[in-house]
Structure formats: structure tokens, C-alpha cells
Amino acid sequence: MLVQKYGGTSVANAQRIAHVARIISGYRKKNPDLMVVVSAFSGVTDALISASAIAANHNESYPEILSEIYFKHREAVRKLIPARQRKRTDTQLRDNFRKIHDTLHGVFLVRELSPRTLDYIISFGERCSAFIIAEHLKSKRIPAHFVDARLLVKTDDSFGEAKPDMNVTRKNIREYFSKLRGVKVVTGFIGATMNDETTTLGRGGSDFTAAIFGAALGAKEIEIWTDVDGVMTADPRKVKKAFSIPSLSYEEAMEMSHFGAKIIYPPTIQPAYERSIPLRIKNTFNPMFPGTLIHRKRTHSDFPVRGISSIDDIALLSLQGSGIVGVAGISARLFGALASVKINVMLITQGSSEHIISFAVRPQDAVLAQMVIDSEFKLETAAGMIEPVKRERELSIVAVIGENMKNTPGISGRLFGALGKNGISVIATAQGSSELNISIVIKKKDEAKAINALHQAFFLSDIKTCHLFLAGTGLIGKELIRQMLKQSSHLMRNQRLEFVLAGICNSRTMQLSSEGMQMSDALKNLSRSKQKATIKDFAQNMIRMNLPNSIFVDCSASSEVADCYEEIINQSISVVTPNKTANSRDFRSYLRLQEVAARRNVQFLYETNVGAGLPVISTLNDLLVSGDRIIRIEAVLSGTLSFIFNTFSAEKKFSVAVKEAMKRGYTEPDPRIDLSGKDVARKLLILARECGMYVSMSDVQIAPLLPAQLRNAKSVNEFLKLLPSFDSHFEKMRQHAVAAGKKLRFIASLKSGKLNVELITVDSLHPFYNLTGSDNIISFTTERYRERPLVIRGPGAGAEVTAAGVFAEIIGLGSYLS
């Protein structure tokens, strides 16, 4: 015999029931004695509970809900059963709803809803659906029988979550079905006491019904038909990349169901386990997919864990104090007190010091649990031996499950590493000696982020996914997107790196999507977006999304964006930026960002602050970390000024060189910002701070390059008009250098604790003499490189090289985070 169970989503309406009937018809060819257990139509049980509560509150609107439920069933009958065969079904349906109405009216009058009455009311969901499905099968000439499980499943009187008497129930089932042939359509979820009072087996009890019948009849397999492709590696509503698990052991399935896997009701597994009957989880909407087989055998898996489950809302209580250390019977008293008020404990953890016992319960049980424990230990509390119970709310349990974890080194390291890199703090942890489950307690707001981070760490470790949030869509931002688009397939193919653009903003609008957006359309869609934004709005939205492996990329030059860095880093989101503002502010602000990043174990990367795409800061840090000592730094740190002084010649006047640099996009919109030397000074300041110097902008001496009249021009246009009149001034400087066999170079230098930025001349022996184009060049004279300085040279201006530097840091960070 084969037993199938169809859940509420599978029998939600007439169309889905007809689909289920086709599946049943196909299976019946090989299984003529097929048994089908069905749930109520989707939403009906909740609606009946709602109507009952409204009636108990003496609210006269309960008949409206009942009418909606009735019409839902009547509509299904109209579509599923031909008119000439409908009389029996219509009569049964009217009789059922008359009974529900009468019961609800009684509830309304007495203003009381007992668990027994509620069980009776909600039992009609399954009683109606099973009867309609059986009649539909008959109309399709499939021999079918409606079976009211209350006649067979005998339980205790724990209404709401009744426990079956298995011996009596098995005997009833075997006798009842010994001569019954054809498809048996059984009501799930419900049973009855020995006095024939209607009971329910707990929410999800239709699974349990299927297992009870399957075990009693020695079924070859029990199939649970639902709306996903079997048991998934994680909740697909929270982890978009979750996938079906081909097979599980009973133990693994029980662990996953206990820790929140919604596919299977926890008690379902026990009857099947006792009789070694395989369970298979199938998808009604994808019936050809094999689904997940749950059986006794331990099967091979390519992954170290089988799945990740969670309980999304729990409270954690802790009993602590010197009075429990080494004292026998404390645990018995603690959990005995909880058992006396029927509180279920979901997780227990205790350190080897025995100083504290922590345990998780449902939030609605937390206050009562605290009261009974305080009462149990009131004498010890009064004596100061035990502290009052500590209660924490808004927490979740996440469990990593799988038999392959046993004796596999590194599982815990990978788990805590993935959480740590995403800034998720673990409040409590528990692991049994069977090594089948590692459970952690975390903040509820971090649950989805934690599950996604762990899913990637254990199931997608060969694919490293990072979520990017980009601020600034100017030249650098646009070029960064272009480069990422161009390299995306290469990164996926060769480095298994995937970057998902989850947010983008400029100074006016923003767009965000936890699913990610197409990079090719991001700029166009942003320009059309009506979602007004400030950078603070953008940052807050990014923080609320709480996505794993998030990276904030600031391609602006805005001080307002830099103002948000500390808050972003404090939320364990790494920052990559060419924006020099944050690192060139007062020293305390600079130091604060470094400290926060270190404390949060977050990367704050700004290589492009100094040398665009050149490895300047990383080289400097490598020298310092390896124990070298910096004696002197000399550098041309402005690609703009490098281009101007390399282009400026007898044939090309200074003003022409400046305008050409503007045309190429090398300068700021106001070229005086570049020509003032302040940008170079900020870069020198950052290098000095990386060397460990406690310096500010006031410590950098800048020799003015421009005459006062040009510096004080009222506008860019006025500056450009005045500039040609000073060509002779700059030409004299150039000729004087040429006469001495030298060239003009705008150099930043750090020597003997002094920071200088000035235009000087260098001879042919100087490493900067042969500089060309817009190249930057940095010379490090150190203890190890005293005779021949370490020189870094390359393009130092333009969006392309800066974006490439930013991109390189993002790639490195992506590999680190994942």
C-alpha cells in the first residue's frame, strides 16, 4: 500500500484539487489500494479559528466569515462535480455548515470557547475537503471512499494537541481497511476520544495522520505532498538559493523538523521510523521531481551538513549564581518546575563551570517560566546564592544539521567564521555528543542574514556571493559598473565570485533590492526612479536589509557620505572608497574609523585614496608590518598636475595644458582645486597617518602654485579667462628649469616628521625626471631601501584607473568575506 498526504496548498481550490485527482489517477494504476490523507482547503482552519474567536467575543460578525468559508466550498463543488451527481455532496455540505453555525451560535451566546469546542469546529475543514475530494474522484469513475478518521484514530482528551492511543488506533485501522478496496480519502488532523469527542492532533497533524495509517497498514512508502521540491537545504522564503536535499536519515529529518523546517510535522516521523517505512516529500506542482526520501540508511552527501533550520522567535532564560555550582538536583528542580506548567524547552546550554544554565522557550511561555523558576528557587535567591532569572526576547535559534558533521574537523570553525565575518554575535550555543546538530541563539533581526551566510558557507562555498551598495554615480561609479559587467562572467568562471548590486544611489534618488538588480540597467533605472533619497536614507535601508557579505562602495567625493561610514562599519558592513574625506579629517576621526573597523572585524579599504589604481597604501603597510622603517617619502600624487607639467612646453602654454586636462576629465570641475595642491596635501596626510604619525592638515605646508589673483578669482569662468595672462609667469619658471637641465615637478614629501607640498625642479638623476603623461610616482626610502628607494609608478588620473583600483579591492574583499 502507498499512503499519500496532500496539504492545504495542494487542495486550495477546485483547480488544484483537479490537479491532485490527476496525480492520484496516475498513481492508482500501480497502487489500486491507494490511501490519500487530505488537509482542509488552504486558509479554512485559520478562518474557522477566527470565526470562533469572534463569536466568543460576542461579536455578531462571525456568520460573515462562515458564509465566506461555505461559498468557498460550494464553489469548489460546482466546478468539480457534475450537476447530476452533486445532490449528495450539497446535502452533506449544508449539514456540515448547519452544525458549525449552531456550535458557533452557542459560543456566541455563552461567550466561551473551550479547547474541546474549538477542536469540534475546526474539524469540519478536513471533513468537508475529504468528502468533496472523494466525491470528485467518484465523478471521474475512480472507486473512492470517504473515511472519517475520528472513527479510527482514538486519542486522549488533550484537545488541541491530542495524543493517539496507538494500540487501539492500529487495531481499528487494520480491521476497517481489511475489506475496503479502492482509493481511501481520509480526513487528516483529526481524531476522537474513547467517548467519541472530536480532537485534533496539533497544527500540521495531517502529516501525523498519514504516518499513523501508513505504519498501521505497513505501507511501502508514505508520501507528503506539499508546495516545494522536498526538504530544502534552508527555508526557500529566506534563502533564495536553497535547493532540494535528495535524501535524509530519520534522525536528520527529526532534527530539521524540530528546528523549524516547515515541510514535515515533527511527530510524523516517529511512527514511520518505528516500522522503517520510508517517507518521501513531493511537490504537487512539480510531480515529476523525485523530492526528498527520508529513510533509515545514512546516505552519501557532497556537503558537510544536510540543512539549516531555524526557529524565528524564542526567548532565552538564564539561571545563574554560585549556588548552582556543583549542587546535585538543580537541573531536576529547574526543568521539573517548567514541566509542571507544561512548558517545552527547545534548547539547553550549560558551561563546564556550572555557573549558568540557559534554555530557550516560546516567547509566550517566557513570563510564566520566569515566575515558576523564581518561585522554585526563592530561598536561594533570598540568600544571594542564585540571581533572579534573566530573560531575553527577540531572539532566534539557527541549527546546522547533518550526520556528515560527525568527526568532520572544521565545521564549527566554518560556522562561527561565517557569522563573525558578517558581524553576527552568538548569544548561546549547544551541541550534542552525537554531533548531529550545532544550534546557536542569535538576535531575531539577524536570523535571515545568518541563514544566508551559513548556507553560502556550507552549500555554496565554491560560489562566493557579495551584496554591493554603491553611492555615487559620477565618472568613477559609472566606470566601476562597466568594469564589473565586463568581468562578471570571468570572475564567476575563474574565481567563483558573484557580485549582486543590491543598492545604488546618487544625491537625489536611490534604488534597493534584496534580490539584486541588473547592473546593465541600474543607472538607467536610477535616473527614472521616483524614490527620493539622502545618503542617510540609503544607509538606513541598507542596514535594515541586513544582507550577508554586504559591501558599501562610496564612489562620491561627498563629506555627507563619509559621515555615514562609522554607522555603516558599526553594523559590520565593509567599506571600499576612493573618497579621501574621511581619512583626511581630524586625527581623532581617522583613528575612530580604524578602531571601529578593527573592533567589528570589518574591512575599511581606501587604497585609491592616494594613488588611484596603484598599490601605494598596501605597499606601505607591508613595509611597516614587516618591520621596516620609513625614512623619507617623495611622491607626485596628482595625475592631473603630472599631466599638466608633462604637457606644458615651449609649444604648449600652461593655460592650454590646463584646459586639455579639463577636457580629458582629469581635473575637478573647478581646476583650482587640483592646482591649489590641497588634494595632494590630503593624500600626503593619509600616507603620514598610515606611517603612524599623529598629524592634521595644518601640519602640511603647501607652497602656493597659483598667483593670488588666480586663486581668488570669483568663478571658474573668470579663472579660465585670467589664466592665459599668466602664461608668461609659468613659462619663466619652465625656462629657468630647462636652463639648469631640470624639469618642473609638483612633489609631496615626508621627511624628518615634516610634510611639504611644493613645485620644485628635479635633475636627470632624480627618479621623477622621466615621468610622462598623467603618471603618479611614489618613492619610499626606508632602512631596507636606503641606497635605492622603492619606487611605484603608473597612471594616477582618470576614472578608469581609479575604478579599477576600487574594483580590485572589492574582489579581494569578496574572497575574504566568503
Sheet with most strands? 8 strands, mixed
N-to-C span: 48 Å
Sequence of strands across the biggest β-sheet: 3-4-2-1-7-9-10-8
Q: Estimate the helix proportion, in percent.
A: 40-55%
Question: Structural class, please?
Answer: alpha/beta
Question: TL;DR of this structure?
Answer:
The protein is an alpha/beta fold and 818 residues long. The radius of gyration is 36 Å and the shape is elongated.
Give structural attributes.
818 residues; alpha/beta; eight-stranded mixed sheet; six-stranded antiparallel sheet; 30 helices
What does this structure look like?
This protein is α/β, with parallel strands linked by helices and 818 residues long. An 8-stranded mixed sheet has the order 3-4-2-1-7-9-10-8, with helices on both faces. A 6-stranded antiparallel sheet has the order 12-13-11-14-16-15. Strands 19-18-17-20-21-22 form a 6-stranded mixed sheet. β17 (464-471), α15 (475-495) and β18 form a beta-alpha-beta unit. The longest helix has 25 residues, at 115-139. The chain is elongated, with a radius of gyration of 36 Å.
